[in-house]
Amino acid sequence: MREWIGLFGLCSMALAAAWVYGTHRRTRRTMETLAAMLDAAMNGDFHESTFDESLLSALETRFAHYLAASTTSAKQVSAEKERIKTLISDLSHQTKTPIANLLLYTELLAEQPLPPDAQTDTAILHAQAEKLRFLIDDLVKLSRLETGILTLHPTPNPLADLLTQTAQQFSAKAADKGLSLSVVPTTAQACFDPKWTAEALCNLVDNAIKYTAQGGVTLTVTAYELFVRVDIADTGMGIAEAEQAKIFSRFYRGERAAQIEGVGIGLYLTREIVRAEGGYLRVSSAVDQGAVFSLFLPSAP
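Now predict its structure.
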């Protein structure tokens, strides 16, 4: 009897071990299959297969359905992005020629001996054509950023050259208004895309000059552990506290700024550029006490 009990126990243990081993192998095979599915999905070549409806293979099947749906969705997003890219390119191409012609013919008209009223109308027409070109260019840039068609490539760069080149670009405009435009020397560097950060900085300096009647604009840099702050400080009309959160909205223009030429998209575009680089934008201001726009850029990748 004891021998039979012992033999039964050994058989039970052997069966239990075989069951555990078999379960382990099935589980491992399922995990390997799931891992292979993920690899295929990440490589973009996942194709759905059919599995037996056991408990574990049911998980494989559901996971396969999920990945198949995700792959289809990714392809649809990619196709939609490609359509948007084509639309933006067409828009940019189709509007350049008419706007260029408007500018050309208004310049030719301005050179003719026109009556005073006609000269005024021609100057207004030319200014509006310039405004339209500026708006179309900014909308195309913004659309490319927002749809992910355009990607920024931040790299470590010194800030001195960027600030100096920006100041040189706007020195004549500042001088025409009798304003000073200065850059405080710096040896700091930050992680940014030179081309698009220059675009953002130019927007801020252009605004500072535009909304300043007397005094000047100063560019300074302050380095921190994680970020580098670029301040664009002016002595202009300032911004009311209630409006400071709104000025970064698309096409928003404050009541006091409405009398000055502009389209209200520059600050929004600037914020999107800086955000795409991992930075952020802040403003500190009070009415009739100027404004300081602070552009924060990552100090390292």
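Residues 50-55 have pLDDT under 50 and may be disordered.
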